[in-house]
Design goal:
The protein is an all-alpha fold. The protein has two domains: 95 residues, Ankyrin repeat-containing domain (Serine Threonine Protein Phosphatase 5, Tetratricopeptide repeat, Alpha Horseshoe), CATH 1.25.40.20; 98 residues, Ankyrin repeat-containing domain (Serine Threonine Protein Phosphatase 5, Tetratricopeptide repeat, Alpha Horseshoe), CATH 1.25.40. The chain is 53% helix and 0% strand. The protein starts with 9 loop residues before the first helix and ends with a helix. About 10% of the residues have low confidence.
Length: 220
């Protein structure tokens, strides 16, 4: 249920590496490893220098992970800013169908989320969303930020899971309260017919179940 990376075969890994090297552009394959390492190790000045030499800001690592996704996941704001300034696609999806703002939301990288929102990153696409990812780990500041930027509060994963359900699953009482106060629908069901309330009861989260029950009664 929780967001997770998708496994890849050895052949696919090799293909991704070849594609990554192909993205090296005029700088040549020799600079590829330096570029990936600079992104991974949060060295923005080196990233900028390599971009000026012709490195493609949409390069991918050996696992097919775009460099912008790596920087967002690792909470490297300056590297994210450098890559975006260099032309990185902020709405590109990685092999797991995740966008940079989704990974930043999962990691609690508030400043990166704010920056990507300022660049009009998409947040209401079908399927898993940044709000679902933020709720997964109870990142309330990011949830507020996304909602302030018109994120759909009841966005549903492919299996019908909502942000409220993810907050319940993670045991984040304050996040459950926040989402309910902001208007999340506690009566929605996933494909198995479960609601946020039933998840709370199954997990013996009586405080959450009580919060949800009060909200449901207030809606009648």
């Amino acid at each position: 249920m929780r967001p997770a990376a998708i496994g890849r075969s050895g052949g696919a890994l090799l293909l991704s590496l070849v594609l990554g090297l192909a993205c090296a552009g005029p700088a040549g394959a020799a600079a590829y490893d330096d570029f990936i390492q600079a992104v991974q190790n949060s060295r923005p000045k080196e990233v900028i220098a390599l971009l000026k030499r012709g490195m493609d800001p949409n390069s991918v690592d050996a696992k097919g992970q775009p460099v912008l996704h790596i920087a967002a996941r690792e909470n490297n704001l300056e590297v994210v800013q450098a890559l975006v300034a260099g032309g990185a696609d902020i709405d590109r999806r990685n092999p797991s169908k995740e966008t940079p703002i989704m990974l930043a939301s999962l990691a609690g990288a508030t400043k990166i989320v704010d920056f990507l929102l300022s660049k009009d990153a998409q947040i209401n696409q079908p399927g898993w969303t940044a709000l679902l990812y933020a709720a997964t780990n109870g990142h309330n500041d990011i949830i507020k930020l996304l909602l302030d930027n018109s994120a759909y509060i009841d966005s549903a994963a492919p299996n019908g899971t909502t942000p409220l359900m993810m907050a319940v699953r993670g045991g984040y009482v304050d996040t459950v309260r926040l989402l309910l106060d902001e208007g999340a629908d506690p009566t929605l069901k996933n494909e198995n017919g479960d609601t946020a309330s039933s998840w709370a009861l199954k997990g013996k989260q009586t405080d959450m179940a009580a919060l949800i029950s009060v909200k449901i009664k207030s809606r009648k």
